[in-house]
Amino acid sequence: MFILIADMQNLDSTFAALADPTRRAILARLALGETTVMELAKPFEMTQPAVSRHLKVLEEAGLIVRRVDGSKRPARLAPSGIEAIDQWLEMLRNALARNYDRLDQVLAEINPNQGGNPQ
Amino acid sequence: MSSTHTANPRMTLTTEGDTHVVVTRRFNASPEAVYRAHTEPAIIQRWLLGPDGWTMPVCIHENRPGGKFRYEWSNGKGQGFYITGELIALEPGSRIVHVERMHLPDPTPDNHIETTFQRDGDGTLMTMRMTLPDAKTRAQMLATGMERGMEASYVRLEGLQLD
Predict the structure, then answer these.
(1) If exposure means fewest CB atoms within 10 Å of the residue's CB, which of A18, A97, B44, B99 is most exposed?
(2) By CA distance, what is A23's nearest residue in B?
(3) Would you call B149 and A91 a contact, using CB atoms and an 8 Å cutoff?
(4) Structure pTM?
């Protein structure tokens, strides 16, 4: 029971962390490899403190891990972050797949005598 | 019909190298018909829509090499975005080469896309190969596309009680 509650809380913080588009884009960037705050700040046109705040949320949600390297704390994806990226890719696939399912119907309507036999 | 409701076995989406995304899909129609569905505005507006609830109220498509296009999407609740682009090469029934960018509202870097339509038995194999300027841009584009997919799933989540 206690474990179940702990899991639910973790799920809440994961969804909260993923609800922000900038944090999703940061995760996508981290999918390419370990990155410092400075390197992240540039493409997202954000200040380093703003990036650090997003990283803190992602870290607390267990989506990224950070290590100490002198004065830097480079971030990389945690296993659950990799899983989240995979799920997004799956959702993108689904959105595209839905377009093409619609196109199947449109093609059947504009040229009903053509194409394969759906049984 | 024997298709499953989960992953669509006829579509693949893969990354290639640092800067490419490749999508393939098979259709039960001739290459000419699938090509038309990608180049005639009245047909494009019927299927290129993304998640449920989105429509394409504006579809301008000058179907000639050098022609411009502009597609605008709306979710009917005040949210929307648009794509602009230029057609580079058109081979009716077999190949389209174009450049496009999303406006969110700031334009994203150009995505260079070659789409081919090959006869495959009594149907067509479509291959869409995207080339982005660099790895970062590709990651951001995939994140943006994911965001639209995410929206549909958040709508579903709203109906669930997680307490």
Answers:
(1) B99
(2) B143
(3) yes
(4) 0.66
Query: Alpha helix locations (H) across chain B?
Result: 31-39, 41-47, 135-158
Q: Which CATH number fits domain A2-110: 1.10.10.10, 3.30.390.50, 3.90.105.10, 1.10.860.10?
A: 1.10.10.10
Tell me what ipTM this predicted complex has.
0.76
**CA atoms of B146 and A53, how far apart (whole Å):** 22
Q: Which residues in chain A have Cβ-Cβ distances shorter than 8 Å to B144?
A: 25
Interface probe with B: pick from A98, A105, A109, A117, most Cβ of B within 10 Å: A98
**Which residues of B are less than 8 Å from A25 in CB distance?**
139-140, 143-144
The residue among A92, A104, A113 with the most chain B CBs within 10 A of its CB, best to mutate, is A92
- Both tokens of B64, joined, read 């000639």
pLDDT reading at A62 higher than 90: no
Q: What's at A10, amino acid-wise?
A: N
What is the number of residues in chain B?
A: 163
Tens of pLDDT, residue by residue over A19-29, are 777 887 788 78
Residue A53 has pLDDT above 90, yes or no: yes
